[in-house]
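Worked Example 4.2. Consider the chain below.
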Amino acid sequence: MARKYFFFDIDGTLTDRSTGKIVPSAVEAVRKLKEAGHFVSIATGRARYKAEQFRRDNGFDHMVYNGGNGIIFQGKLRENRPLDYEKALAVYRQALELGYGVYVALDDSDKVYADSFRFHEQAGVRKEPTTYIIDEKFDPADQDAIYKMYVSIPESEEGRLTLKETVGHLRFEKEYLMFQPDAKLDGILRMLEYAGGRTEDTVVFGDDYNDLVMFDPRFFCVAMGNGCDELKERADYIAVANTDDGIYKACKDNGWFDEQRE
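Applying the procedure from the previous section yields the following C-alpha cells:
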C-alpha cells in the first residue's frame, strides 16, 4: 500500500465526548498506522494552548490546529496565524454598534478582553475555563492581532450581524457566536506541502459540522458513526461510533495497517 497521510479531528473523533479522553482503540490504531509507515496528524479547531498537551500525551508529531491556521510539523511550531485583522475588527465594531458584548482573544491563550461586562450580562460565562480581562479603555484597534472573538448574539438574531460571513465562525453554544479560523482544509493542504504528501493519498476523519470543510473530494473522507448526518452524506466511508472502536475498525477494513510501500 502507498503511504497515506491521515488527519484526525480530536473532539468526538479521537476522544469520547462524555469523558474528554482519547478512545483506547484509537490509540492502538494510530500506533499501528505509524508502524506501517503512514503519516499521522491531528486536525483540530482547538487553539494550541488547548491542544498541545493532548498532542504530546498521545504521541502525535504533527498537528493542524487553530481551525487550520496553525501547524506543528515534526514536533516544531511552524505557523500560528491570527484572523484577518481588518475583517475581524469590522465585525467587532458592528457587534458593539448593535448592542452585543464581545470578548476578544489577542493571542493563543485562555485570556479574553472586553471594554465592559456586557457579554456576561447577555450570555453568561463562557463554557470553558477562561481568564477575563475587563478594561473600559480596551479597543482591539490598538492591538496587532485578533485570534478569536466571542459575540453574545443569539442564533435567532444572527442576521443582524451582516458582516459575520466575512470571518470564519461557528456556533457550539446557543448563547454566543464564536469567530475563529474555519480553514481546516487549507491547513491540511499546507501540512501536505511540509510533508511532501499528495491529496490523493490523504485520509481525513471527522464527526461534526466544523469538519465539513475538510471533507474535500480529493481526499478519502471517513465520518464517524456518532457524527452529524451532513458529514456522513459527504463521506466515502461511514465508520461505526468512535467509542465502538470506529477508527480502529475503519483502518482495518481499508487495509491501512498493512505496511506501506513507496
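The longest helix spans residues 85-97. The chain has a mean pLDDT of 95. Compare this with Example 4.1 before moving on.
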